[in-house]
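Methods — Computational structure assignment.
A single polypeptide chain was analysed. Its primary sequence is given first, followed by the predicted tertiary structure written as structure tokens.
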Amino acid sequence: MASRAFFDPLTLLRLAPAISSTASLTLAWDQHWMLRIFTLPELELDSNLYLPKWFHAFFRAGLPSVLAFLSVTMTTATLNLRSESLLLKRRGSYYWYAAGAALAAGHLLFVPAVAPRIQAIVEDETKEKSVGELRRWLRVNGIRGLTTDLGAWVCCVVAVVRTFSV
């Protein structure tokens, strides 16, 4: 068996929300900056033509990663709250883990705002409206990234720092 000096599962549990929220934030901003290219005026005609099929493939490929990172953040932050909660409260990290979990879950509150945009892009049979819908999706995605994703990341990093500070 591995020595706890070499590998401590509790240390990994304490770090996991910061790692997974970093992945979520990175993915959100990568999507945002990459998808903005389709909205450039000089590309709009081509983007309207290709965006429905492209976005369908992009969304199907990316959704599992988004959900996995959010699930890991919410689950591991919650597990931290349930293990040694008195220690985390003494170190001042308990409520940071709670806020990180809540903000990660808050990412999903934006689904009603983005789902119609995604559907409109994918189902744009006229090949004329996808770029406009993508612009609306990007606005919501930007707001979501600056609120829930960045907020969850800050909370999880603060929780980890406070937990491991001596």
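Note: The chain has a mean pLDDT of 93.
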